[in-house]
Amino acid sequence: MQHFKRRDFIKAGSALTGAAVLSSTPVSSVFAAGSDVIKIALIGCGGRGTGATFDAFASGQNIKLVAMADAFQDNLASTYNTLKEKFGEKIDVPDSRKYVGFDAYKEAIKDADVVLLTTPPGFRPIHFEEAVKAGKHVFMEKPVAVDIPGIRKVLAAAEEAKKKKLNVVVGLQRRYQTNYREAIKRIQDGAIGNVVSGQVYWNSGGVWVRPRKPNQTEMEYQMRNWFYFNWLCGDHIVEQHVHNIDIANWVKGKYPISIEGTGSRAHRTGKDYGEIYDNFAIELTYDDGSVVYSQCRHFEGVSNRVDEAFQATKGRAYLSASNQAVLWDVNGNELYRHDPKGNPNAYQQEHKELFAAIAKNEYAFDDTQHGAYSTLTGIIGRIACYTGKVIKWDEAITSEIDLSPDIYAWNALPKIIPNESGEYPYAIPGKNTSLYI
């Protein structure tokens, strides 16, 4: 476990400067002889997978979708129809390359040069591992895991990806967003001094609920409602709030040494909401004594907030995914205000840069480290709130708690199942926390 220690993360701080752009090392061509077509496979045919495929085609490169995989036939069919209608002959996916089931990803990966991994994040470690094993470039959505063994699997696969010079981009798209890149460069260059505190937020009304249908197995029900089960989602502090947590780590140029906090099921308490909390508030403490406060919640009918703010020895900063970025000095004088005019769409930009590198046969991107460590920060935050304990980074990373089912099959049972009333167990600090650490 030595290479996961925080002191080693600090040595790798240069990888925190946004998208991890490498030295554009040449790689062997991914293309078939006499062709410049980049063949892609979509693994996970939900809304995010559909969107990622749109973004890939917006890259401007000569791309064809040649394979699709999903656990559900209806998801695959719906996404295929949407993409075929929009992109026509660029969607070259005959029935023989439409794969359905838990192992469908293995076949789809074989058919492509680049894979888009957009399933629920609980599957990300095994899918990423398989893609790297097969020698494929990767775009994978955030977060990259839901538990600490999954993080270790992703980091191990990342080492192999480096050896094979495989480009990897993680869907933390703020890393490719112009206002964040420009503002954080200035912060790290010392424009406002040393960052001593911050606040990061993802406060929203929550997401969809899909009612249980007759004859659904428990596995299918949880898969359809993946957002509410930790083995699939990681809770929303990991699945959504990882974006803002990643900004805190990026601004600091390091990772916290300890995390503490609180959370609960305050409003979304019924059986439709599985086992997850609807609110978290944590403190990220870094080795220089600075503390970033992190808050996320799913409350309906109240004020929403998704942004980041930081205070430093010579000023302060405000950042937002809505293309805002402002830096002030200690007297409130404006040092920098980002001009959003003409800024590219960040979701498209991450694909544009990835596919440009692949088209030029360059090894230019390795996002796995910051994707994994910011995901890990969220996981440790979840554990801190579930247990009511202060969790130290170097202790948490030894956890062997694996949330995934023992068997992936429609008639198999996940580790968390409902009682006779249909209610799911959930973490109560100081009581039933053995499933979480």
Structure summary:
This protein has 437 residues and is of the alpha/beta class.
Description of the structure:
One of its GO terms (molecular function) is nucleotide binding. Pfam families: GFO_IDH_MocA (PF01408), GFO_IDH_MocA_C3 (PF22725). Residues 38-164 form the Gfo/Idh/MocA-like oxidoreductase N-terminal domain. This protein is of the alpha/beta class and 437 residues long. It folds into two domains: 38-174 and 350-367, NAD(P)-binding Rossmann-like Domain (Rossmann fold, 3-Layer(aba) Sandwich), CATH 3.40.50.720; 178-340 and 375-397, Dihydrodipicolinate Reductase, domain 2. It contains 13 helices and 17 strands. It has helices at 6-11, 47-57, 73-87, 104-110, 124-133, 148-164, 178-188, 218-224, 236-239, 242-252, 346-359, 368-387, 393-396, and strands at 21-26, 38-43, 63-70, 98-100, 114-117, 137-140, 168-170, 195-204, 258-264, 279-285, 291-298, 305-312, 315-320, 324-329, 334-337, 362-365, 391-392. The strands form three sheets. It has a nine-stranded mixed β-sheet. A six-stranded parallel β-sheet has the order 4-3-2-5-6-7, with helices on both faces. A hairpin with a 5-residue loop joins strand 10 and strand 11 (291-298). Helix 10 crosses helix 12 (368-387). The longest helix is centred in the C-terminal third of the chain and has 20 residues, at 368-387. The protein is globular. The chain starts with 5 loop residues before the first helix and ends in a 41-residue tail after the last helix. The relative contact order is 0.17.
